[in-house]
Design a protein that fits this description.
Distance between the termini: 22 Å
Strand content: 15-25%
Number of helices: 13
Radius of gyration: 21 Å
Structural class: alpha/beta
Shape: globular
Low-confidence stretches: none
Largest sheet: 6 strands, parallel
Length: 312
């Protein structure tokens, strides 16, 4: 978000504790947490004197009384993206104007309808993850956390059906899940890459012919970064969904990907075969056109300008 705001010409300050010390050379950093600020102190006065127009925060903060008390002293707007499908906000956290909640998909809009959500695609632009020019790519790639909710075993089986090599990128969150699906996940056509970041992650996506997206039947994807990351890199997506109105339908179109909606009562083998069909369809798409659309649809400067502007 900070990268997009800076690209849009905003003066950006990073508030809160920092773990990436390298940012201190390029960004104005203030380690203060609003919920820890005592009323009437110098810290509160310095925040107020900074004259902020907009705070972009994690979705939980507008529901914290201590945080909202300090925010009330700053006379600025608040915007946040809903990145959890289960978090419960206080009834007064968002008014749709001064405090705004953005949701990725129709599915998420419906779940948070009581909080006046605004539809918008989330744009994630990682540090040193600039995309190279689009290329046709070769292997398939799946990226995410490796656990039951993300269901990479279905992507691996789809690749096997097609006789294709697939890279699995991401950390193992659930070792028991991996053990249950060890036979397919350890097959010869699977390359376990591990967790990647920065240029290595971007390269893994950009050098693939298709990004394969999966998740479990009962899981609700609040707003996955991978859609923007893949399209901006020029890699079309083949997506498995279990219902309409998900993030995949919100992010993709016929020129950028292929989406299948499978009845959740169907078994994994049926889902994998349906997904395999979408992989073949996605491979026919023009990578350069995918990147062109991705850079427009997931433009960080445009995303910031949208969040910085109050709805009419």
């Amino acid at each position: 978000m900070a990268t997009g705001a800076r690209a849009a010409g905003a003066d950006v300050h990073l508030l809160g504790p920092g773990w990436l010390k390298s940012l201190e050379e390029d960004w104005v950093r203030k380690p203060v947490r609003l919920e820890d600020v005592t009323p009437g102190t110098l810290a509160e006065r310095e925040l107020r004197d900074s004259g902020y127009d907009l705070l972009v925060v994690g979705h939980e903060y507008p529901s914290l009384p201590a945080w909202t008390r300090t925010w009330g002293e700053l006379d600025c707007d608040v915007a946040t993206f809903q990145h959890s499908p289960v978090f419960r906000h206080t009834p007064t956290a968002f008014d749709g104007m001064r405090s705004r909640l953005y949701c990725y998909s129709p599915e998420m809009m419906e779940r948070y309808a009581d909080h006046r959500p605004i539809p918008d695609l989330a744009v994630h632009l990682g540090l040193h993850e600039e995309e190279p020019p689009a290329t046709a790519g070769t292997d398939l790639v799946w990226l995410g956390r490796i656990d039951e909710e993300k269901a990479p075993h279905i992507a691996v089986r789809a690749a096997q059906i097609l006789g294709r090599h697939i890279q699995i990128v991401g950390p193992v969150f659930d070792k028991e899940y991996v053990r249950r699906h060890e036979r397919i996940l350890a097959a010869d056509h699977v390359e376990w890459v591990g967790e990647l970041g920065r240029t290595a992650k971007t390269a893994a996506i950009a050098e693939a012919s298709v990004f394969v997206y999966t998740y479990a039947r009962t899981y609700v994807e609040a707003g996955a970064a991978v859609f923007g990351e893949s399209l901006r890199a020029g890699t079309p997506m083949a997506a498995l969904t279990w219902r309409e109105g998900t993030c995949a339908q919100a992010a993709l179109c016929d020129e950028t990907g292929a989406v299948t909606v499978v009845d959740p009562r169907e078994d994994d083998e049926t889902a994998a075969r349906r997904l395999a069909d979408q992989i073949k369809q996605a491979e026919t798409l023009d990578h350069r056109r995918v990147q062109e659309i991705g850079l427009q649809r997931f433009d960080p400067a445009g995303h910031f300008q949208t969040m910085a502007t109050r709805p009419c």
